[in-house]
């Protein structure tokens, strides 16, 4: 097995943002130490827990990336973070810190100080994903964010002073009260701070977030009436693509842009069929043939692990056709696209023949293009990616 990516879910936040559809909450802070103790137990004992769900123990699995997300991992103390990472390294890479391992920690700007940055770096964190979302105060406050533009500037300075230069920022297109002018302010202000990576997301409207439920129900709470139209959100995204490309960022995945050499190695595993193992509340895993997921309820997770039981609530073995379809639509998320001949050789298939009509239809719509045997989304196709993916399933 290729080296895996390890995802660690820390579902604790000081405040729940209205747009957030993750399994994170403003849980009581006194629960965090107990959660971390049980999370470490899950990691140490995964080889005995996985078989109960029909998953091989993968005793010899190694890892070359670690990603802490799911809420606000920046709330962890240096001692808590060190203990957790040492458990991961002991299980998946021996006791010695692996040279070149990418260790990413998600942080909110208001949690970053020179002391915290230095502590993170000392633990081996070498990449920060900063939850900026906007650089405009009105947009931040209305969705529940606690920082402002000046807080973000200070966070960049503190991270660099602490020895962390690889800084990614998240932006959301579609927040209430957002305009073309305010979106441009967020982009230009952040570019001045010289991050190495941008993740630009269009607002997700689904029932898993408070704002999403309000929009779906036609309500007005959480300033739902001030959310930009779909066309406006698409324009914001296109403006970001243009601005970031002009600034020298490589658009390597639908939502992700990196300076050369700074692509997220961990997230690339999700789109390139590499294995990854998730631990904690609502963590997901994939070993090439199976996908499985932990419970998304904190109380259930704590109860199960306390009893020495597996927190896995869903496990699905993928049929060959499902594996092929996943390789297609996940591969198409990357701007380089997918090689049809390579997939044909691996799955003994004829993709060009099987999907000839679908490819022709999407090509005529201007959503996909072929370059020899390689199929990829066009710039226009980025806006209709869900429709394209559905066409191959």
Q: What proportion strand?
A: 15-25%
- In the CATH hierarchy, the third-tier topology of the largest domain is known as TIM Barrel
Q: For the record, what is the CATH homologous superfamily label of the largest domain?
A: Aldolase class I
Q: Which residue ranges are poorly predicted, with pLDDT under 50 across at least 5 consecutive positions?
A: none
Strand order of the largest sheet: 7-8-6-5-4-3-2-1-9
Helix content: 25-40%
- Biggest sheet: strands, sense, closure? 9 strands, mixed
Tell me the domain tally.
2
Shape field: globular
Task: Explain the overall architecture.
This protein has 393 residues and is of the alpha/beta class. It folds into 2 domains: 4-271, TIM Barrel; 320-391, Arc Repressor Mutant, subunit A (Orthogonal Bundle), CATH 1.10.10. It has helices spanning 32-44, 46-49, 78-92, 114-123, 137-143, 149-161, 180-192, 210-216, 230-246, 265-271, 298-306, 320-331, 340-347, 351-354, 356-364, 385-391, and strands at residues 4-9, 63-69, 102-107, 127-133, 167-173, 197-202, 250-253, 256-258, 276-279, 284-286, 290-294, 312-317, 338-339, 368-371, 374-377. A hairpin with a 3-residue loop joins strand 10 (284-286) and strand 11. Helix 3 (78-92) runs parallel beside helix 4 (114-123), helix 4 (114-123) crosses helix 6 and helix 7 (180-192) runs parallel beside helix 9. The longest helix has 17 residues, at 230-246. The protein is globular, with a radius of gyration of 21 Å. It starts with a strand and ends with a helix.
């Amino acid at each position: 097995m290729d080296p895996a990516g390890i995802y660690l879910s820390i579902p604790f936040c000081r405040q729940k943002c209205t747009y957030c559809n993750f399994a994170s909450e403003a849980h009581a802070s006194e629960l965090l130490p107990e959660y971390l103790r049980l999370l470490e137990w899950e990691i140490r004992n995964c080889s005995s827990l996985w078989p109960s769900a029909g998953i091989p123990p993968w005793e010899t699995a190694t890892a070359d990336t670690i990603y802490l997300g799911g809420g606000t991992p920046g709330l962890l103390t240096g001692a808590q973070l060190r203990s957790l990472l040492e458990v991961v390294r002991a299980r998946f890479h021996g006791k010695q810190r692996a040279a070149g391992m990418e260790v990413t920690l998600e942080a909110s700007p208001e949690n970053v100080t020179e002391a915290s940055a230095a502590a993170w770096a000392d633990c081996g964190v070498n990449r920060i994903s900063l939850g900026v979302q906007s650089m405009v105060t009105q947009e931040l406050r209305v969705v529940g964010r606690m920082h402002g533009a000046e807080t973000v500037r200070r966070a960049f300075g503190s991270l660099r002073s602490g020895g962390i230069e690889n800084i990614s920022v998240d932006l959301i297109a579609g927040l209430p009260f957002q305009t073309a002018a305010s979106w441009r302010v967020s982009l230009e202000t952040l570019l001045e701070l010289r991050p190495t990576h941008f993740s630009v997301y269009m607002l997700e409207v689904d029932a898993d977030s408070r704002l999403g439920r309000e929009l779906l129900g036609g309500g007005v709470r959480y300033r739902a009436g001030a959310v930009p139209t779909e066309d406006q959100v698409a324009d914001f995204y296109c403006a970001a693509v243009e601005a970031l490309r002009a600034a020298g960022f490589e658009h390597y995945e639908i939502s992700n842009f990196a300076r050369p050499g700074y692509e997220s190695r961990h997230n690339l595993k999700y789109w390139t069929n590499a294995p990854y193992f998730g631990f904690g509340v609502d963590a997901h895993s994939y070993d090439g043939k199976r996908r499985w997921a932990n419970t998304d309820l904190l109380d259930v997770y704590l109860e199960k692990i306390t009893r020495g039981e597996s927190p896995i609530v869903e496990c699905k073995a993928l049929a060959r056709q499902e594996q092929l379809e996943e390789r297609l639509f996940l591969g198409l998320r990357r701007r380089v696209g997918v090689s049809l001949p390579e997939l044909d050789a691996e799955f003994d298939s004829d993709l060009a023949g099987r999907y000839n009509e679908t490819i022709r239809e999407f090509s005529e719509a201007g959503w996909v293009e072929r370059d020899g045997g390689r199929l990829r989304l066009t710039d226009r196709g980025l806006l209709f990616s869900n429709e394209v993916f559905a066409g191959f399933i």
